[in-house]
């Protein structure tokens, strides 16, 4: 069971772990790219990560889902990871952090 007091801390830890998931094509993590739209963790330890990709039809769907699952495995409260890819709203470069834009040379 996940206690409500620690839910915010767990979400922070999840985000930190997702910052280790680097898009193989762009070389920047999925959090700073703005690909992670929502993270939900229920009381049973099921973590749903709603995310998108920079382009629909990107061949990295399975690879990134696997990388997300592996990144969250070390968190004891996360018992199962469910990665859901969504296409609405569409991803744009405005979702990227300043760090990501600097890394990719976008001004």
Structure, explained:
The chain is of the alpha+beta class. It has a single domain (4-98), classed as GMP Synthetase, Chain A, domain 3 (2-Layer Sandwich). Helix content is 32%, strand content 17%. The protein has 3 helices and 3 strands; from the N terminus they run αββαβα. The protein has helices spanning 4-18, 61-72, 98-104, and strands at residues 36-41, 46-51, 80-85. Strands 1-2-3 form a 3-stranded mixed β-sheet, covered by helices on one side. β1 and β2 (46-51) form a beta hairpin. The radius of gyration is 14 Å and the shape is globular. The model has no long low-confidence stretch (mean pLDDT 92). Residues 11-83 form the MIP18 family-like domain. InterPro entries: Fe-S_Maturation_MIP18, FSCA_dom_sf, MIP18-like. One of its GO terms (biological process) is methylation. GO terms for molecular function: methyltransferase activity. Pfam families: FeS_assembly_P (PF01883).
- Percentage of β-strand residues: 15-25%
Structural class: alpha+beta
Give the integer mean of the pLDDT values: 92
Shape: globular
Indicate the low-confidence ranges by residue numbers.
Answer: none
Strand order of the largest sheet: 1-2-3
Q: Specify the CATH class.
A: Alpha Beta
How many structural domains? 1
Assign a percent range to the helix content. Answer: 25-40%
End-to-end Cα distance: 45 Å
Q: Give me the count of strands.
A: 3
CATH superfamily: Fe-S cluster assembly (FSCA)
N-to-C SSE series? Answer: HEEHEH
What is the fold named in CATH at topology level?
A: GMP Synthetase, Chain A, domain 3
* Radius of gyration based on Cα positions: 14 Å
Oligomer classification:
single chain
CATH architecture: 2-Layer Sandwich
Keywords: Methyltransferase, Transferase
Pfam family, one: FeS_assembly_P
GO biological process, one term: methylation
Domain MIP18 family-like: 11-83
């Amino acid at each position: 069971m996940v206690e409500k007091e620690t839910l915010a801390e767990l979400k922070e830890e999840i985000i930190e772990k997702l910052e280790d998931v680097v898009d193989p094509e762009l070389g920047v993590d999925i959090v700073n790219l703005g690909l992670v739209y929502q993270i939900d963790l229920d009381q049973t330890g099921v973590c749903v990560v709603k995310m998108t990709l920079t382009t629909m039809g990107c061949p990295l769907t399975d690879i990134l889902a696997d990388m997300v699952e592996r990144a969250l495995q070390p968190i004891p409260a996360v018992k199962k990871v469910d990665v859901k890819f969504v296409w609405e709203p569409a991803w744009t470069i405005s979702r990227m952090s300043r760090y990501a834009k600097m890394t990719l040379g976008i001004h």
